[in-house]
Amino acid sequence: MTITDTDRILAWKAQSLLLAYPGDHLTSQWPLLRKTSAVLPRALGTPLRLFCDHAEHRDPLDLAADYVATFDHHKRFSPYLTYFAYGDTRKRGVALLRFKHTYRAAGMILSDDELPDHLAVVLEFAATADPAAGQRLLVEHRAGLELLRLGLHEISSVWAHVLDSVSATLPSLGRNEHDAIAALAAQGPPEEEVGLAPFAPPEYMPHGGSR
Question: Alpha helix locations (H) across the chain?
Fold first, then answer.
């Protein structure tokens, strides 16, 4: 089945909601998320339905605790896309600055407490501000995205379903992408390079915490 640009935008909106911290707002969104999963092509919609099947009737506090335990306590499952390419090095600051410039060019301004490379933020940008630029950011960080998806499957995380849906909105992986994923899995993110001065102001350097 052909996936249209409209399908991608609709899927990105749903994925952004499900990959953000699951606060009280999510309770009112389940009916809409169900409807969205039903109208999307199978590759995009079925994983979202599977997530809803698991998460909709869970205690919201338990779901939130599961989210924090998964994404905040294990760097392997970092939702921050530039982490996989740059680790916690100073070079990551430049990548974060590029994300912010891309958002600003499309008229999207983030609050000071939001890092621009959080997957939920990138998906929101792709869905609501500039789909082409948003997809380009996702593709540029595809290796990290796929490594996150595979890692979540290894621990049978319910959020793996959402990552399956995200991956299905992007072009099929080629040999170069598979090689990049394998290399990243083997080597891991880079460590800090001693002696490098920061390439971006301190406010753009990475820090922990949920979106």
Answer: 5-19, 30-39, 42-55, 60-67, 81-86, 91-105, 119-128, 131-140, 142-154, 159-168, 175-187
One-character DSSP codes across 84-106: HHHTTSTHHHHHHHHHHHHHHHT
Q: What is the reported pTM?
A: 0.86
Which structure tokens are listed for 149?
């998806």
In sequence order, what are the beta bridge partners of 80? Answer: 118
Shortest CA distance to 140 belongs to which of 106, 99, 108?
99
Give the pLDDT of the chain (211 residues) as one tens digit per residue: 689 999 999 999 999 999 999 988 898 999 999 999 999 999 999 999 999 999 999 999 999 999 999 998 888 899 999 998 888 778 888 999 999 999 999 999 888 778 999 999 999 999 999 999 999 999 999 988 999 999 999 999 999 999 999 999 999 877 777 777 777 766 767 665 543 333 333 443 333 344 4
CA dist list (Å): 93 to 89, 164, 173: 8, 28, 27
Question: In angstroms, how far apart are the furthest CA atoms of the chain?
Answer: 53
Is residue 92 within 8 Å of 208, Cβ to Cβ? no
